[in-house]
Amino acid sequence: MTTGDALPAARSAHEVTLVELVDRLLGGGVVLAGDVTLSVAGVDLVHVSLRALIASAGTLAAREIAPVR
Amino acid sequence: MPRDDHVLASSTPRLDLFAEELGQAATPFPRRIEADPERLEKGLAQLVLTLVELLRELMERQALRRIDDGTLTDEEIDRLGETFMLLEQRMAELKDVFGLTDEELNMNLGPLGNLL
Amino acid sequence: MLYLYAFARGLGSLPRATGLKERPPELVAVGSLDAVVSRHDRLEQEVAADALVAHAEVVDALMAETDEFVPVRFGTVFEDETSLQNAAAGNEQALEQVLRKVRGRVEFGLHVVRRPGAPVPAPERSGRERLLGKLEQLRAAEDAAELDEPLVRLAVESRRRLLRTPRLLLSAAYLVERPRASEFAERLRELVESRPERLEVLATGPWPPYSFAELEDDLRAA
Fold this sequence. Notes:
Order of helices and strands of chain A: HEH
Largest interface: B-C, 39 and 48 residues
Number of strands of chain B: 1
Distance between the termini of chain B: 34 Å
Structural class of chain A: mainly alpha
Order of helices and strands of chain B: EHHHH
Oligomer: heterotrimer
Number of helices of chain A: 2
Largest sheet of chain B: none
Helix content of chain A: over 70%
Strand content of chain B: under 5%
Largest sheet of chain A: none
Distance between the termini of chain A: 16 Å
Number of strands of chain A: 1
Radius of gyration of chain A: 15 Å
Helix content of chain B: 55-70%
């Protein structure tokens, strides 16, 4: 993998991991009725907000890679 | 940052393909039957439509098996195809009327997985 | 307020992770278990990437420390220790049950998609086309499902979901005994390498056993 490929490949790995986390953390684990539920964007979470999640993960990825240069 | 060492192996460097499809498929919420009395009507619709969807899916699967076995005539395939398509359209209209999404119609049967 | 990540038993030391909003993980005794939590004065948080990641990092760190824990779904918050203890006490048996199921086990994931360029069923014109299109999809999904037969046999339990999207033919999760995890990972790599040309395969893990940490009824506050 050349340095030219590093950013897109890293971002894709982040995206996949993030989507898997959405699936596992929101769809899995023991469900215990707490006093408060962290607010969720509802149905939009998947299509609209997921884009926002991925965008913010992309920003994180860029910040990681920049210092290496 | 997300720990992408959770990615074990991939047949392609194009992980974005998976991200795209998984993003579309992600259903973050458990499927619950609406038991709140204030939303009882929606809860009943949810229950009824879930059962109708189940029947439709079972019948469709049965039809597909018969097509696979070759035990249906062309005319029968046409008629079944039209009927199922109409049923699907009707279901979409009903879901719309009650403001129900596909996710809300699904049911988690524990070890058996999801109903639909 | 207490944000809950997991329950654990016999934990020697705290999981080494930052925690949600950089509040460090702590332990709160709950019956014979420890609740892994972080304390917050106030918690208003939308589901967002950094929050999911913070949660996952705590549970990952926990998995590195111990065999005996139960991951909790994202977003579970209690007003105070008493409230958390009441909720756990009221569900002691259920928690024991799920702990027994996932103790010493990890999760792996598998996803199978059609390669781009491989034909995906086009929007149908007639009822007949729609039905035949579904048949083709079903056959493709069944082919994909056959791929993971050896994995299903190696795992304690598995969940397979077919046709999650027209292109995503199979998504599966496997619960695997820790001692067999590296063998399982090896099998996954083999599967990825030997897959049919028309498919792309992604294997993930090891994860904490999120997909198997569940009960028939959601746990209710006491």
